[in-house]
Design goal:
The complex is a heterodimer. By secondary structure, chain A is mainly α. Chain A has 14 helices and no strands. Chain A has one domain. Classes of the chains: A mainly alpha, B alpha/beta.
């Protein structure tokens, strides 16, 4: 068995060793339900699709994904087990990959548990189930992007709270980077290519199409390369900053 | 074989390890000795590839720990300071995890795990989460993890810290049993451990290697080496004892009234003391020749105290 799989298994079952897994799953399901039915106006829209459900995922994930990733490395630093892990003859990239995949699979599990919504919408109407599936896959990709950035922040500090806040801040930048809030800061002086680049990094813009069930290869590639970039950054950080 | 060459580590301004060089051959049990903060743990962290040295190199069985980290770490077993383990896991799950990481599968995995559970007598607690273990059990889980793959090089940072005397004895027996044809490096500030276990002592203070010799040689540095201690219920003629050839000074132990004669360097006192006792017809209940006191040597060498 590859080392990344052994790490993945340990981390994934680690979520269930404490009440964290259950608290997280419950919170995720309750919040996504509230967002869908109250803020999203699922019934009022009278449309047989899950757009009200997916629309709020960038905001829901902004808080929940850093919570899921904060312990990945901070805990190891705090308890000193990082010294054990780093001397077990495991490649750093396998550690980073294993931990990330554990969190990503767990997010996938949480997302999967919203399946009653799919039944509901099929019961009430005649939805495009292909679009729903696309929405789910896109949402999972989005979760992966948050988790990769958050696990990078977690690798920086032994303080889990700091890792949570830091990850939230970092992810927030990418959520709103297409928004006037961020772009206005550059409009008057920065070159156009910079503005284009910043706005192209926006999770909200990228996810809008996906939440409607339209998936663009460029968006998929964006999220996948975003994940890869943060994982590579994590490997580098762990290489440079091993102790404390 | 371990080859350490001109190893240094500084944390911003602070120089933790300064220009350390030594080699270790299979069969040797090395004791890293030194006061807290001397650089023992930092050195171990560099030997195991956890910390990158600021300068110098470490080779483990020919593998450079900086360039061939994975291959070097495969022959290493390491107990970090404080024996950190994944607290939320049970002892069994943790050891299975370590076994899988070390490359064991199926039946061999079960056997390896069972073997270390027996070796460190963990049978009673395999189902408990590590967080709930006593300090002694926690340390033994850390040792079990380190020895599971029967590594050629075993690096143990304070292996007996927090153990009771029986457990200390057990762990020492274990280390002795493992030491054959292997390299064992332990750090400790328990001095009795050095004489009980080690074939060679590296005394480190302020990040520098001060002494590299056998425990026996280290004892010879003691002012009590070859000192003679007498205990008698009757008062002895202290002036006559002091006047014996080779006696440098005489100490009276206020606790039990025994007398210790400290020799001049190189002098052997026992024959002359014995002759004086015979000649005067003294009734002496106890007479002992000391091989030396490590704590005194340790204090003198690490704090620069005069003898």
């Amino acid at each position: 068995m590859k080392h990344w799989r052994i790490i993945l298994e340990r981390e994934f079952s680690g979520y269930f060793a404490t009440p964290l897994a259950y608290v997280f799953l419950l919170t995720f399901l309750v919040l996504s339900g509230l967002f869908t039915f109250y803020l999203g106006g699922f019934y009022e829209s009278e449309q047989a699709n899950l757009q009200p459900f997916f629309t709020f995922h960038p905001w829901l994930y902004l808080f929940l994904m850093p919570a899921l990733a904060m312990r990945l490395w901070s805990e190891e630093r705090k308890s000193g087990t990082i010294e054990l892990l780093m001397t077990l003859a495991i490649r750093r990239r396998e550690m980073v990959l294993g931990k990330f995949l554990a969190a990503w699979l767990f997010a996938g599990l949480a997302l999967g548990l919203t399946f009653p919504l799919v039944f509901t919408v099929n019961f009430l109407g005649d939805p495009d189930n292909g679009a729903i599936l696309t929405g789910y896959l896109g949402s999972w990709l989005l979760a992966g992007a948050y988790l990769a950035a958050s696990s990078f922040v977690s690798a920086l500090s032994k303080n889990t709270v700091l890792a949570f806040i830091g990850a939230l801040g970092l992810c927030f930048i990418f959520v709103v980077s297409g928004h006037a809030l961020v772009l206005d800061a550059f409009t008057n002086w920065a070159p156009q290519w910079w503005l284009d680049m910043v706005s192209s990094m926006s999770f909200l813009t990228r996810f809008q199409a996906i939440s409607r069930g339209v998936i663009d290869v460029r968006d998929v590639l964006f999220f996948l390369s975003f994940i890869l970039a943060w994982l590579v950054a994590s490997v580098i950080v762990l290489e440079l900053k091993k102790a404390d | 074989m371990i080859e350490v060459s001109k190893l240094s580590k500084h944390f911003s301004e602070h120089l933790a390890v300064n220009n350390l060089s030594f080699t270790v051959q299979p069969g040797e049990v090395i004791g890293f000795l030194g006061p807290n903060g001397a650089g023992k743990s930092t050195t171990m962290k560099m030997l195991t590839g956890f910390l990158a040295p600021s300068a110098g190199s470490v080779k483990i069985h020919g593998f450079d720990i900086a360039k061939q980290r994975i291959r070097a770490q495969r022959v290493l077993g390491y107990l970090p300071e404080g024996a950190p383990c994944y607290g939320e896991m049970t002892v069994l799950d943790f050891l299975l995890f370590i076994g899988k990481v070390r490359g064991y599968r199926g039946k061999e995995l079960q056997e390896r795990v069972k073997r270390v559970i027996d070796l460190l007598e963990l049978g009673r607690v395999i189902g408990q989460s590590i967080d709930t273990l006593s300090k002694g059990f926690n340390r033994r889980v850390g040792l079990a993890q380190a020895v599971m793959h029967e590594p050629k090089v075993l690096i143990l940072d304070e292996p007996t810290d927090g153990l009771d005397p029986n457990q200390k004895h057990q762990v020492r027996q274990l280390i002795k049993a493992l030491a054959k044809d292997r390299i064992v490096i332990i750090s400790t500030h328990i001095l009795e451990e050095v004489s009980a276990l080690c074939t060679r002592v590296l005394l480190i203070a302020h990040g520098e290697l001060i002494v590299d010799e056998t425990p026996h040689q280290l004892l010879q540095r003691s002012k009590y080496h070859q000192a003679v201690t007498l205990y008698s219920e009757n008062a002895l003629d202290q002036a006559a004892l002091k006047a014996l050839p080779g006696v440098q000074s005489l100490e009276e132990n206020s606790r039990d009234g025994s007398l210790t004669l400290i020799p001049e360097p190189g002098a052997v006192l026992f024959p002359v003391v014995n002759a004086l006792i015979q000649q005067r017809g003294w009734q002496v209940q106890e007479i002992a020749v000391e091989s030396g006191r490590l704590d005194e040597v340790f204090r003198r060498l690490t704090r620069g105290e005069s003898a």
